[in-house]
Write a structure and sequence with these properties.
alpha+beta; 4-stranded mixed β-sheet; 53% helix; 10 strands; globular; 4-stranded antiparallel β-sheet; 11 helices
Length: 376
């Protein structure tokens, strides 16, 4: 694939990389992850004011170029950034743009100012990957609504100022903006293995104003599917940064570790293994480019490209992660080295927004549907 960044995108990449190198080294990130809050408000403010990254959600500006988001998120993956940029600026802001309501525009301005953090509540217990809410029900209550049901593993929910909740009504799937402090909403927060935070949510007769409805039954499911593919593409871009750091650390470690009087990087068998790791990462990067550039394509083409990226990246995360740990030896399993933390993040990415098996099944279903469609 012949792919080159524009000068502006290269400048964006370099500025983000420089900030993270100077102000977000691994030890700083680890301290943030172990803190009571689990995220850094000063870093989030820097994303808004110093780097201007949160302005990508500004409703008064054109929608961001997906390649710009890809550039940013890949650098975040390389630094293992824990703050909820993807959840807020990619997933959340994309849904709010699809909504276009006054509530959505207010939330978008809050993101750009650094005041809002979002979390999308879509997964439910006992369900596999899919956007059609089954157990969370929205019922009309006068002019407003009432929510009942449960959501599981809502990434970033403990940090969120607003929850975006998918629910089912008689007319179809709907999306609401919900205050985490709303009466009847119970959250059970917990840390995830990659140092982030998630929560299981229970809605017991949660009252909502009419303005809380962001997407009605005609638009919600298509918007969720499109935003899901954009989120998959961004998550896979993060994985390219994560796996790249694991590969770089592994190469550096094998140059330092000595056996039989020489660095183990000189052993041909290990050189072959690291070449295989490099090839897996390059395949993943190419799949991410394709998925990112396909986000504006027709829905079926967009979905197929996103699923291809998720499968390719999932395989790369597992292959590179396992080999990185093995080549580091016992040290790779400890918290003392960064590689173990990157491996944990790669493991979570492999299953987030659907496992490789889920996306293989999705790709197969989309392909079969294409074959059955009559020729134009």
């Amino acid at each position: 694939m012949d792919f080159a960044f524009s000068p502006e995108q290269e400048q964006l990449r370099d500025s983000v990389a420089a900030y993270l190198r100077d102000r977000y080294p691994f030890e700083t990130r680890r301290a943030i992850a172990l803190s009571d809050r689990g995220w850094s408000e000063p870093v989030w403010r820097d994303f808004a004011d110093r780097l201007g990254l949160l302005s990508l959600a500004d409703p008064d500006a054109p929608p961001p170029d997906p390649v710009d988001l890809m550039v940013v998120v890949e650098q975040f993956g390389a630094a293992l950034v824990i703050e909820p940029f993807l959840e807020t600026v990619v997933t959340g802001a994309s849904l709010l743009r699809a909504s276009g309501t006054d509530t959505a525009r207010t939330l978008l301005r809050g993101i750009a100012a650094g005041d809002e953090r979002l979390a999308l509540a879509w997964g439910e217990p006992g369900t596999r990957h899919g956007w059609a809410a089954a157990r969370t029900v929205a019922t009309r209550d006068g002019a407003g609504w009432r929510l009942d049901g449960v959501k599981s593993v809502v990434i970033g929910a403990p940090w969120a100022t607003t929850l975006l909740v998918a629910a089912r009504a008689p007319e179809g799937v709907l999306v609401f903006a919900v205050d985490p402090a709303a009466p009847g909403l119970t959250a059970h927060p917990y840390p995830t293995i990659d140092g982030r935070r998630a929560a299981d949510l229970r809605f017991d007769h949660v009252p909502l104003d009419p303005s809380a409805l962001l997407l009605d039954a005609d638009r919600a499911l298509p918007a969720l599917e499109a935003v899901g593919d954009a989120s998959v593409a961004a998550l896979c871009a993060e994985a390219v940064g994560v796996t790249g750091r694991m590969l770089d650390d592994t190469i550096a470690y094998t140059r330092e570790r000595r056996q039989f009087g020489q660095p183990i990087s000189q052993f041909q068998a290990l050189q072959h293994r690291m070449v295989d790791m490099y090839m897996k990462r390059e395949m993943a990067a190419s799949a991410v480019y394709l998925a990112t550039l396909s986000l504006g394509a027709p829905a079926r083409e967009r979905a197929r490209a996103a699923s291809v990226a998720k499968v390719t990246v999932g395989e790369a995360c597992r292959f590179i992660g396992q080999h990185a740990i093995q080549l580091h030896g016992g040290m790779g399993m400890t918290d003392a080295l960064a590689v173990g933390h990157y491996f944990k993040r790669a493991t979570v990415i492999e299953g987030e927004f659907g496992s490789p098996d889920d996306h293989l099944a999705r790709f197969a279903a989309l392909t079969e549907t294409s074959r059955k469609m009559p020729a134009a």
